[in-house]
Amino acid sequence: MKFYKEVSKFDQWFMMIVQLALFIFFLVCIIYLLRQEIYNVPAGKGDRIIGSTELLILSFIPLSILLFLRYIVLIVSVNADSIFVNLKPFGSQKYLFKNLRDIRLINYDFVGYGLRFSATYGKVYNAKGNYGLSFATNSGEKILIGIKDPKLFLEYMNDIELPIKNETKGNM
Fold first, then answer.
1. How far apart are CA 26 and CA 42, in angstroms?
2. 126 and 144 in contact (C-beta within 8 Å)?
3. Pick from 37, 53, 120, 155: CA 20 to 30 A from residue 136's CA?
4. How many CB atoms lie within 10 A of CB 154?
5. How confident is the model over 144-170, as a mean pLDDT?
6. What is the predicted pLDDT for the residue at 170?
7. Are strands 82-88 and 91-96 parallel, antiparallel or unpaired?
């Protein structure tokens, strides 16, 4: 293997429920907009009628949030001399192995999703699962990067002969 790469989307069941609710809200807004424009049936009752422009704007709010949630992805790439982490659309970071110490593959407790800051693990990049690459930079910053497939990752790290401590207790 020349390099290791994994792409993790935020597709947990609860995120799917949120996305489904946003999509249903978008559809309801569009249906009311079409009813109002085609059949002249006002959206609302009495003096609480909402106009077509407001409905159109209201429909784009959940659509924008939905598209944003579908776009977020964690990409982890490792080659012989560095680790590259990209949490789209929030930015990326490259860590050179020569500037790292105490590199470990660990089984960690739930720390949240996305980019987090933890007292135990430091800066955390996580999309799913509970396995991760933990290390410290030479400046003392602690980093944890969520790894989706720890067996394949460990196999790659052994292939490039990079010393890594496996602290997953064999539970992979």
1. 18
2. yes
3. 155
4. 18
5. 85
6. 62
7. antiparallel
